[in-house]
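Example 3.2
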Amino acid sequence: MVASSKNVRTISQEAFDGLVKENMEDLGMDPAEALQDAIEALTLQGVDLSGIVTCIPGVSSISDDPVIQCLDRLKEFDSKLGSRETPSTSGEDFEEIADILDRLWSLCSVEGSGNASIATRNGGLDLLISICFKIDPQCGRALDSGLKAMSSLIHDVQTTEIFRVHHGPKLVMDMLTNCNQNTSILDNGFLVVAAAATGNELVKESFMELKIDEFLLHLLKGKNKGRIQSLYDVIHALLTPDDGRVVASQVYGYARRFAEIGIAQELVEEFHEGLTSVNLVSACTALKTIAVNRWEEGITGSSNARNLVREEDNDGSNMRRNGRAIVNDGSHQQRRLEQRTQMREPLWNEGHKQLVEGKVGNFGLPCVGLNNEFEKMLRVGLLCLQATSLYFILYPFPLVIPIADFIFNYQLDSFSPFWEFHFPRALRRKEELIAQSGGIDAVFQCIDDSGAHNNKAVSRSFCSLLSKLAGSDSNKSAIVQKGGINRLMKLSSQFSEDPSVLQEIMTIITVLSLRSPANAACAMEAGVGDFAIEAMKKFPDAYQMQRQSCLMIRNLVVRNPENRAILLGNGIEKIIRKAKESHESCRDAASAALRDLGLDNYNS
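Structure, written as tokens:
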């Protein structure tokens, strides 16, 4: 959970000006000194001064601030505009409005200037929403400038809430649908959507309820998709679980919806344009966001779920979470129990309430981003309870709790083969949907082209995407059968001087060899062991790559004892111990790698 903005100490503009005036009158400070003293004193007290206009008394005033001047002029036009139905302004007025909005955008888009905070503190976002609502859709330039300025004012949770409360999602969607042939308005409108959806689960939900996914699909199928770069930013913002205020995000369901209606397929189609596409990396990032939201994340609501990898040791006593070795001392079970209890409480409370009220058929899952199939299973359990008399009302959920608890425990701890067998359509993974659209072939083509043309950005992006697609067992097989490991080794030689690309390659091989002895053997035959040793020797300071190499080595040897002798014979122990000593972030991964290599003194 994140800290609430209500806990941050703030001060009004009037109180700040009063403190400066007090320094001048009571302490005899000159204006500049009084201003600086007030700023330092409040900063030491932890007061948030963002949005405060700091002007020197007698030299300048709040009204001299260029942002305030823009807002004052826009307020005049806002009162003059009336409404779309009864316009009272001329074309010249709209041109002036556009000029002011452009000026406001140029001021507020400067990072670190604080102008965006000044504008929002003085009602700028509310004002822009009102003006954009009143601008005639035919006045393209004014509307375009309004959306662009609005995007620069939405920068934190507070402003995204202002946008939501003032019906911003509905307003922007109406503008986009009415101006769907104007690429500039679409581009700036999507900038607003991306900014507003970032970090705010309710805004994401509002846009999804307005069917923004279908609108995005329509544009992706159109001829102007290459000219709307922010379209890809919207996909990323909508499908990223970045609101720490909610227990569980719904983005998993959104991502699945994006995949099933065809957005993933349209993004794959863009890959066929190759390196000539200006949006290639953006499209890759958007598709990766769709692929990365797996079923586990829908349950946990945590972005960490996407990094969850588990590999049982020989004795089954330890596991890895996010690549870190965890000793099975019972502490992680306690954390899991607390997490599940936190997730289940709203389910049980709401379910019992609806059972008593006879609303089982409309049973929902509040605050939990589960898919429809899971909800149907719980609904079936509730229907069974409903048929067994009032006894179950007096003793809430005596049967459904064990059933659902089994689902939670069994599913969260591993991707249940039982569940996949009985409900294959319910849990068909988005990675597989993407692969069925030719995604793996298209990704490898871009990887091969990026290596041939020495394009590091494309290589990193597509290797990262491939590691997410490899999360599906069927995709693992397809990647290996297409010569994927050999192609990755070729890429590693082409970017042998860039540890960031090498790290992404290691991530792919880590996923491919997870719980797959055959793939681990294939990787060793392709020279992955030598690749790991050479990279770790060559870039001892690249701590992220060093850590990823340790994780890769774990998966190469944990189920393949024959690989241990090969790597140990080539001196891997000394290299791993050096990484462990040099980088604190590598210690857990390095210790686990040494243990899986069969070394008893792995903790020394």
